Amino acid sequence: MGSATPERILVSVVVPMFNEEASVRPLYERLRPIMDAGPWAFEVIFVDDGSADRTFDEIRRLHETDPRIRCVRFRRNYGQTPAMKAGFDHARGNVVVSMDGDLQNDPADIPRFLEKIGEGYGVVCGWRKDRKDGAITRKLPSKIANLLIRSITGVTIHDTGCSLKAYRVDVIQSAPLYAEMHRFIPAVTSMRGARVAEIVVTHHARKFGRSKYGLGRIWRVLLDLLVIKTLTSCSRRPSLWLGLLSLPFLALAVASFAASALVYARSRPGEPIPLVYPGATLLSGFAFMSFLTLGLLTELVIATGRVHESEVLVTEVVG
After folding, report:
1. What's the number of CA atoms in the CB half-sphere (13 Å) around residue 158?
2. Number of alpha carbons in the 13 Å side-chain half-sphere of residue 279
């Protein structure tokens, strides 16, 4: 792409939905005039994440009136990251835009995302600078999580949890996304060489339903943050990093073996030998070999690649 958004690119808008039947049609009615007004073709991929209400029926009715509306339906609820990944995998566009289905993201911001992508960025993130959510249950945990993510990953994005983002299709379809990793897309894609930008977006108060997130997600963010730190630190040569981590255990094994030999040499015939030194030798030697084996297995996993999970989760595709 050049300095401006080119004519007739295809934009795929991916919208995960979970029990959002009241939001489906209002979102479409907001989104359609914005996308129709631009110099691009578009499709909307709703991903029904195992909704128990009439979300899928509402999406199918829209598809019957507008074939640009497509739907990927999960067998049951798997979570936002698998839903987003399934939408990305089924996207046909040159550029992919992700957004929430609860009407809190504003489709009117999408053209600015596409302009930024046209400047050569691989990922453009939204920043909910004036966020319309609860201060204690949503804003405070989000600020803490964003501070930790910025500190550990080095990617200076203010609002990693904002779902309104735009991506070049080759960047997002090759990104490893699983568990709760959608909030780490800027870090994962930046690690792979993508240029990342951020723009301030409009954020609306929720009108329908209730939030699927709360304080209980903090521990999952922390666990995923450990995974991201590992990926960003040693994904290129895991055997090297894990080999370095094994060296202290090797040193401990050698020292405890030497201590065992010294004690044995100085012991009198029939005198019992303390088991602490041989035990320390065996345990540290086992840890040393475990780290080396783990490094080799990790190299093998990275070399063979990761099987896409989304195809296994999908039960139906419309459009």
Report:
1. 11
2. 4
Write the pLDDT tens digit of every residue in 131-172.
876 656 566 677 777 777 777 777 888 888 899 999 999 999
Going from N- to C-terminal start, the domains of the chain cover 10-235, 238-304
User: β-strand 314-318 against 41-48: which pairing, if any?
Assistant: unpaired
Q: Which residue has the higher pLDDT, 125 or 270?
A: 125
Q: Is the CATH number 3.30.1360.120 carried by domain 10-235?
A: no
Q: Do residues 297 and 73 lie in contact, with contact meaning Cβ atoms separated by under 8 Å? A: no
Instruction: Give CA separation, 191 vs 5, 124, 150, 173, 237, in Å.
Output: 25, 15, 13, 15, 14
**For residue 44, what are the contacts with CB-CB under 8 A and spacing of at least 6?**
12, 13, 15, 28, 31, 68, 69, 70
Helix (H, G, I), strand (E, B) or coil at 41: strand
Tokens of 222: 């922390």
